[in-house]
């Protein structure tokens, strides 16, 4: 399939790809999990809208104290979910930043086809236009605690409502652009949650080039997410928070995980903004890979031609690798 560039019309499009628990064992037939209706208020979430008509793609919208509006989530089920009685591993898949990116991004891109016949649940949540998968230092528009929503609310809700393996070897996290950063961040910060982490054109270094990515996170979040507030603080950063979120400063947290990285190498002849984005992403991922290598931490990396866009072939390869790594359905 030919790679397709997601629509990102605003100047802040793809804000994430900026220049800036444990048990092993075979799967089997297990008892069914309760329906979403039976656990409607799990983990501080209240369902305010839903559509479960599609046998594979379920849609939910939640009210939560963590976010000042009602974020959406798509849950893509395996083809045999409704009659197998099995439990399944789960992939949390995160979108990039900007006006054209949200929880339906990967449905538009072709996630149904990528996962057809594969025994894995894929959870695709909202992450904000420039939420950076973080709890911001300041906000002028009410709560935007995306990290709390994803880790402390959504993950337990998924495990309460679907037949999953609620353990380290049952979970993976991946994402594109800003979502690729979020995946790297969550995998390190919540080491015991995810056995596989993947970053597709996502930044891996917050401090390189005088903190270019951190500055961009602040600028983009102030402009379109936080009403002038910032993810990391301005004019002075919350240095402890930057260090806690910075993949290149958390190298040991990637040990014993599957690590999959993608960054493009060629300028985009049409879109200069995406070219700048991917140039910085590539530099940061190379820095990250070098540190992983020196620490003796295995990782898979790819540098295909092209700029800052979702590569369908890399996504398919990643999903196959995730399924191979996680506990089998």
Verbal overview:
This protein has 329 residues and is of the alpha/beta class. The protein has one domain (41-325): Alpha/Beta hydrolase fold, catalytic domain (Rossmann fold, 3-Layer(aba) Sandwich). It is 31% helix and 14% strand. The chain contains nine helices and nine strands. It has helices spanning 81-84, 105-109, 111-115, 146-161, 178-189, 208-224, 239-245, 272-294, 312-325, and strands at residues 46-51, 57-63, 72-76, 90-94, 121-125, 171-176, 196-200, 258-262, 300-302. The protein has a nine-stranded mixed beta sheet with strand order 1-2-3-5-4-6-7-8-9, sandwiched between helices. Residues 1-40 have low confidence and may be disordered.
